[in-house]
């Protein structure tokens, strides 16, 4: 008779309801942002691209452009814009370097960092070239 493996470590507790709500809001906002990009002629190369230094919400292509997109969802568009901090920009730039290292064919693309702001009851706001990689 086979023995059942015992779980390692303490049992995980359920995430707090506010964390679950924030996670769902983020997924919904990323889906709205991806639809907006597709409507503008982009192809989605990746969503939620995880690296050791951070995550890129959306990686998209349009012609020779390779676009790294940060999606921010808040109660209004101004609050979403304020949530794009210098720290978050540096995290996205570092994660983009990981993308380029693992996708060498993209090195010849024009690289762009965009932001899409999402708020309930509003159309998403797409800010192309929201910031650059110069430090």
CATH second-level architecture: 3-Layer(aba) Sandwich
**SSE order in H/E notation?**
HEEEHHEE
Helix/strand/pairing category: alpha+beta
Give the number of DSSP strands. 5
- The separation of the N and C termini measures 61 Å
Number of domains: 1
Q: Major sheet: order of its strands?
A: 1-2-3-4-5
> Strand portion, in percent?
25-35%
Unreliable runs: none
CATH classification, class level: Alpha Beta
CATH fold group:
Trna Endonuclease, Chain: A, domain 1
Question: TL;DR of this structure?
Answer:
The protein is an alpha+beta fold. It has helices spanning 17-39, 77-82, 86-102; strands at 43-51, 54-62, 65-73, 110-118, 125-131.
Report on this model:
The protein is an alpha+beta fold. The chain has a single domain (17-131), classed as Trna Endonuclease, Chain: A, domain 1 (3-Layer(aba) Sandwich), CATH 3.40.1350. 34% of the residues lie in helices and 32% in strands. It has 3 helices and 5 strands. It has helices at residues 17-39, 77-82, 86-102, and strands at 43-51, 54-62, 65-73, 110-118, 125-131. It has a 5-stranded mixed β-sheet with strand order 1-2-3-4-5. β4 and β5 form a beta hairpin. The longest helix is centred in the N-terminal third of the chain and has 23 residues, at 17-39. The radius of gyration is 18 Å and the shape is globular. The N and C termini lie far apart (61 Å). 21% of the residues are buried.
């Amino acid at each position: 008779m086979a023995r059942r493996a015992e779980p390692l470590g303490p049992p995980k507790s359920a995430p707090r309801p506010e964390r679950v709500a924030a996670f769902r809001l983020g997924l919904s906002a990323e889906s709205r942002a991806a639809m907006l990009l597709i409507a503008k002629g982009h192809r989605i190369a990746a969503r939620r691209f995880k690296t050791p230094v951070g995550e890129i919400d959306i990686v998209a292509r349009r012609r020779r452009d390779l676009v790294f997109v940060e999606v921010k969802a808040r109660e209004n568009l101004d609050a979403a814009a304020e949530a794009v901090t210098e720290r978050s920009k540096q995290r996205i730039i570092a994660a983009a370097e990981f993308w380029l290292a693992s996708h060498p064919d993209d090195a010849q693309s024009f690289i762009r960092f965009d932001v899409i702001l999402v708020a309930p009851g509003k159309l998403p706001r797409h800010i192309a070239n929201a910031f650059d990689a110069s430090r």
